[in-house]
């Protein structure tokens, strides 16, 4: 019904109406579809098929615990060999990464992927009194029905949360009254995250306010872990081990991976080309090493040939040197600086000879 009403609103169709064209392209709220329909006198048959842009489920649950690794999808993409359809395969990996990214960000720090969340919360004795009635002496001698009323089993959800907080804090606190140190605050957030995650998995419809609360607690716990790591590395490792949580160092802004499909595929292709180049250089280096070994085995014979040729060239050079060392016979006499001592009039006599005038050829005046 939705598709029929939407199609009529897009194209102005109605049952039994006349159609001037045979296909149209429209965009649904979540995906792009191409509508194809066939006309008849009283009925329009319409079918929807996927168009250019593929729809993905942003709430897709993570199916593999290895997806929690920050470089899992990048390694999976780099393992592909360039071949026909290579870009499409990279696009499919990017689609999987984006689809499960939201679920991974919620679960990877506590190892929730494909594991039972209840295993990571301490077991509670639900028959014990609630925290505010623990030290009431009259309750110990009260009837069993009264004790059940004041027990954790018949209390609110906050009573269980309080006990889980106290039990996790006791694992990492520095002393009995420690409730505000970094270790205690990390344990408190861990109890909240695990309890709320358990509730979220039990709910059929996932409320946004609960997801937002979990997201805020996860980010705040990461900040506290970063501060604890900067201040006390030994305590940081101890907290991770006792609370069974993980800490992933966020990448620097210049090292952050692109998130759009086109940019991510281009990044993977460039990195793959670098790996291919390095692999080819490594193979060429090994080939040169093998050739070097063969050369070292035959170098003695080559050196002998080179020495024979060198001696021959040296003998030829010696003959040429002997011929050049013979004294040259000087022909003529050098005047040295005689020209500098000659006067200008003498120079004119040498280089300027005036023309003689015959008096017989002179015309009468």
UniProtKB/TrEMBL annotation:
Keyword rRNA processing: yes or no? no
Keywords from the named record: Mitochondrion, Ribonucleoprotein, Ribosomal protein, Transit peptide
Could you tell me where this protein is found in the cell? Answer: Mitochondrion
Which Gene Ontology biological process is one annotated for this entry?
Answer: mitochondrial translation
GO CC term, one of those recorded: mitochondrial small ribosomal subunit
Q: Name one GO molecular function term.
A: structural constituent of ribosome
PANTHER family per the record? 28S RIBOSOMAL PROTEIN S15, MITOCHONDRIAL (PTHR46685), SMALL RIBOSOMAL SUBUNIT PROTEIN US15M (PTHR46685:SF1)
Q: Which family is this sequence assigned to?
A: Belongs to the universal ribosomal protein uS15 family.
Q: What's the name of the protein?
A: Small ribosomal subunit protein uS15m
Q: Which organism is it from?
A: Trichuris muris (Mouse whipworm)
């Amino acid at each position: 019904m939705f598709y029929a009403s939407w199609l009529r609103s897009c194209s102005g169709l109605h049952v039994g109406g006349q159609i001037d064209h045979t296909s149209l392209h429209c965009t649904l709220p979540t995906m792009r579809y191409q509508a194809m329909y066939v006309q008849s006198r009283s009925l329009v048959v319409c079918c929807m098929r996927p168009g250019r842009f593929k729809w993905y489920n942003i709430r897709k649950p993570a199916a593999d615990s290895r997806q929690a690794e920050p470089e899992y999808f990048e390694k999976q993409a780099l393992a592909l060999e360039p071949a026909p359809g290579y870009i499409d395969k990279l696009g499919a990996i990017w689609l999987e990464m984006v689809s499960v990214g939201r679920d991974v960000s919620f679960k990877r720090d506590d190892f929730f992927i494909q594991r039972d969340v209840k295993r990571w919360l301490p077991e509670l004795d639900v028959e014990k009194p609630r925290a505010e009635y623990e030290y009431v002496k009259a309750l110990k001698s009260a009837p069993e029905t009264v004790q059940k009323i004041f027990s954790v089993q018949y209390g609110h959800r906050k009573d269980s949360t309080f006990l889980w907080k106290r039990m996790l804090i006791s694992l990492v606190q520095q002393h009995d009254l420690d409730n505000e140190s970094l270790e205690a605050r990390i344990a408190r957030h861990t109890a909240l995250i695990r309890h709320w995650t358990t509730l979220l998995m039990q709910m059929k419809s996932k409320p946004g306010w609960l997801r937002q609360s979990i997201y805020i607690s996860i980010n705040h716990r990461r900040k506290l872990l970063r501060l604890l790591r900067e201040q006390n590395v030994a305590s940081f490792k101890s907290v991770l081990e006792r609370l069974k949580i993980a800490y992933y160092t966020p990448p620097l802004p210049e090292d952050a991976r692109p998130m759009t499909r086109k940019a991510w595929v281009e990044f993977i292709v460039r990195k793959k080309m670098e790996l291919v180049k390095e692999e080819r250089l490594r193979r060429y280096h090994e080939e040169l090493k093998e050739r070097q070994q063969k050369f070292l085995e035959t170098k003695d014979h080559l050196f002998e040939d080179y020495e024979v040729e060198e001696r021959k060239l040296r003998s030829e050079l010696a003959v040429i040197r002997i011929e050049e060392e013979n004294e040259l016979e000087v022909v003529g006499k050098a005047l040295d600086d005689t020209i500098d001592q000659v006067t200008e009039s003498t120079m004119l006599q040498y280089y300027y000879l005036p023309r003689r005038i015959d008096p017989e050829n002179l015309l009468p005046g």
